């Protein structure tokens, strides 16, 4: 469905693990500067399982085939605002990724061994299309890094285990929890070791990557720290 750029989009916050409508959740959001729920802000866990299962089929079904369904799932109540088909512009999305390995004693609680913070600079009506492509592309590339090992275990294919995100008028901020993406993480870490001035953030002690790989603007330290602050707030509401 085509988007209407003249209509102001709602802010859709998909919360991380917690029920968004408890008193404690309301209090946490207010403390972290999130707006109260209303016509311009919606908090929900709706569609989370379908979103995860759709993304995890990317190796079998491919990005193009999954793109429309995922886009609709990401913003089910805003289909008059966001484009959900696959325009050529959707595949020119840009993104910053901040990678973290989860300490072993927290893996069960977090739900995976790796967390990737995602910043996608985008505006309506392409916000959802850009975000859908970035999620599918990140997962697809992480799986391919895994299966390039001749001795890979087919029962341990990388999977997206959990996801939180915020659609805003100027960007999408997200947190993705993955299992078995050690190969992709090692590639990012190798790049950070080779070029620490651009691909490692000392302030948060984390390796960075971008899409497309030559998107240097998003590696600016100010962009990284501002994105990390927004994403960290999303993780703790």
Map the helices and strands.
Layout: E1 11-14, H1 23-31, E2 41-44, H2 48-55, H3 58-61, H4 63-74, E3 95-101, H5 107-110, E4 114-121, H6 127-147, E5 159-167, E6 171-179, H7 182-194, H8 196-199, E7 200-201, E8 206-211, H9 221-236
Parallel strand pairs: 1-2
Antiparallel strand pairs: 1-5, 3-4, 3-8, 4-6, 5-6, 7-8
Can you describe this structure?
The chain is an alpha+beta fold and 237 residues long. The chain contains nine helices and eight strands. It has an eight-stranded mixed beta sheet, with helices on both faces. β7 and β8 (206-211) form a beta hairpin. α2 (48-55) packs antiparallel against α4 (63-74) and α6 crosses α7 (182-194). The two termini are 31 Å apart.
Q: Which overall shape is indicated by the principal axes computed on the Cα atoms?
A: globular
Strand order of the largest sheet: 2-1-5-6-4-3-8-7
Query: Which segments are poorly predicted (pLDDT under 50) over 5 or more consecutive residues?
Result: 1-6
Write down the oligomeric state: single chain
**H and E order:** EHEHHHEHEHEEHHEEH
Mean pLDDT: 86
Number of strands: 8
Output the number of helix runs.
9
| Main sheet record | 8 strands, mixed
Percentage of residues assigned to helices: 25-40%
Strand content: 15-25%
- Based on helices, strands and strand pairing, what is the structural class? alpha+beta
- CA gyration radius, whole angstroms: 17 Å
Amino-to-carboxy terminus distance: 31 Å
């Amino acid at each position: 469905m085509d988007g209407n750029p003249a209509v102001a989009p709602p802010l859709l916050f998909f919360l991380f693990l917690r029920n968004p409508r408890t008193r404690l959740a309301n209090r946490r959001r207010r403390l972290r500067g999130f707006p109260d729920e209303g016509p311009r802000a919606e908090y929900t866990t709706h569609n989370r399982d379908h979103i995860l299962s759709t993304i995890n089929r990317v190796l079998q079904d491919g990005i193009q085939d999954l793109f429309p369904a995922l886009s609709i799932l990401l913003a089910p109540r805003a289909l008059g605002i966001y484009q959900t088909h696959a325009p050529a512009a959707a595949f020119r999305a840009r993104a910053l990724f901040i990678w973290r390995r989860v300490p072993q004693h927290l893996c069960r609680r977090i739900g995976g061994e790796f967390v990737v913070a995602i910043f996608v600079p985008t505006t309506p009506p392409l916000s959802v299309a850009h975000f859908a492509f970035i999620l599918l592309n990140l997962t697809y590339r992480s799986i391919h890094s895994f299966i390039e090992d001749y001795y890979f275990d087919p029962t341990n294919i990388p999977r997206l285990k959990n996801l939180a995100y915020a659609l805003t008028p100027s960007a999408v901020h997200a947190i993705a929890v993955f299992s078995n993406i050690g190969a992709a993480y090692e590639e990012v870490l190798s790049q950070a070791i080779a070029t620490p001035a651009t691909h490692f953030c000392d302030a948060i002690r984390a390796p960075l990557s971008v899409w497309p790989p030559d998107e240097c603007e998003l590696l600016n330290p100010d962009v990284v720290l501002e994105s990390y602050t927004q994403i960290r707030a999303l993780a703790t509401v």
